[in-house]
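Reopening this ticket.

The earlier resolution said the output was attached, but the attachment link was broken on my side. Pasting everything inline this time so it's all in one place.
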Amino acid sequence: MSVYVFFSAQRAAGKRHRLFPFSEMAQDSVHLSSDYQFWLQKLSVWDQASTLEAQQDTCLHLPQFQEFLRKMYEALKEMDLNAVVERFPTLGQLLAKTCWNPFILAYDESQKILTWCLCCLINKEPQNSGELKLNSWLQGLLSYILSAFRFDIKEVSLFTQGLGCTPVDCYPGLLKNMVLSLVSELRENHLNGFNTQRRMAPERVLSLSRVCVPLVTLPDVEPLVEALLTYHGHEPQEILWPEFFEAVNEAFLLKKISLPTPAIVCLWLRHLPSLEKATLHLFEKLIFSERNCLRRIECFIKDSSLPQAACHPAIFRIVDEMFRYTLLETEGAPEVLAAMQVFTRCFVEALERENTQLKFALKTYFPYASPSLAMVLLQRPTDIPPARWHQPLTHISKLLREMVEDQTQGSHGGPFESWFLFAHFGEWADMAAEQLLRPEAESPEDLLWLLAFYYSPHDGRQQRTETMVEVRAVLSHLLTLSGSATVSAQDLQAAAGEIGHVDPTPPAQQLARRLLLNFLLWTPRGRTAARDTIALVAHTAEMTHEAIGFLDQTLCRWQRLGIDAPEAGLVARELLQELHTCIQRGAQTTWMSTCGSGLPRLGQGTRPLPVATSLAVSALRTHVGKVGAHRLRNAGLVL
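Inline output:
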């Protein structure tokens, strides 16, 4: 159905629901209708400026025609579509003929007024296929005006040659000047403040955002997109079109445009669905990326701009809620945990780059956790001599133990909230496991408790004590073997299976494997038997992935912390390469392909991934917006 048929059908239907009283314009009605008929006939005569006489007549009458377009815009913005159809049934013809006339469209003022008129006709909530087609047709004209102006036609070539320039040079200059003019006008609005006489009307800002929807990927329009995103009027409600936010966000996620961080922050703060979609987009990229590759995960996360934008607490809290939800839905998958830790590290780095002193209190980022614990966890290990790493580890353990078991700070959300905060900074747990294997480790009981809590936060005091007893036996056996003259793979396997004669708890098994893997890297006896031990221990695909994840995380952490361990690093890289080769020979797997066993036990069951992850992402699409927004409202944080 053409737009002309649509206008005729709407008029025949006799629908006359008006948003504003038409009687207020009655005095000018006759004059505007008369002018309308005059210019419609003129446009037909000009017939796309096909003759020299028509070109001269167009140039002669252009100022008056632009004035007519201004009056049309003033009338259209006060009318709904049905009233427009009743009064101007051939308006589609007039607008189309205007758009197709290059001598009219060559002037940026004509383009600007014409786009306003077109935007007035776009139905924000189309109710039927006819209105949808009309919207599509109008957006096509808008796109034509600013992005598809044809300079290859004969008339335009003659026109631009007369100006002494080529068509290729003409249009970009017009578009850039128009965009710069609008950007300047928007920025002046900030300076004008409450001076209503000089402020841009909200309706005009809304129209600009509508115009930009089909044009957001044009490089020349990017300054206007940025200016609109960072523009804040004094209206209590959002003044930009929702579809504008959606179009910009989609283009940004697909790398069709690049925007500075302040503009992205404004986009995600002003339009929560865009933030949720950006986070889901990141999750979906991680799902299909290579499993157990922290460097690739870090590249994806940094490329998303989410860590930089998360310097604003509202954005951090929403993204953090989505990580929490996914972690619980996947029953604590280690890859999800690793991704959250990488995100947190990138976020902290961005926070440090932004300023040395926090703009917002830590409480705004972690409202359900102890501020004192957050301060300790935020310490950078690189700022502490390695010989003194046991001190912050002991402090962290005592703080957590006091909160979890003594419940002296129960107001901070209970054991899970304490664990969730600690899990953001999981490298402290990895460092604790390494510290335990030192011959004269300080505060081993505190470190054991810290690891037992990390790997099973839901356990009660009695269960955690049992886990510590079991792991202590494994640790004692490993330390004894480190002083032996020779150590075989069978000896190490037996040590890791020290808990096998009882009914071992899953956390004890996980911790035993983690201590064994550290032993293989950190002790000379362990390094000599590393290859044979891995062959015995990694007897399933899942155990192989667990070992790969451990080695990859360890090498990345050593590099980041500047740990000099050439022999251990060489063994780790060789083992990692061999394990990757082993995996490649078998079935190909992707990130989060199975729920690993070497992870904190958050729930029961072993639901495989990516099925679990797909379900989690689907559930996020439905629920996480409500959860995140609810959390922010409860905390009094306004988006």
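Reporter confirms the inline version is readable. The mean pLDDT is 78. The two ends are 42 Å apart (CA to CA).
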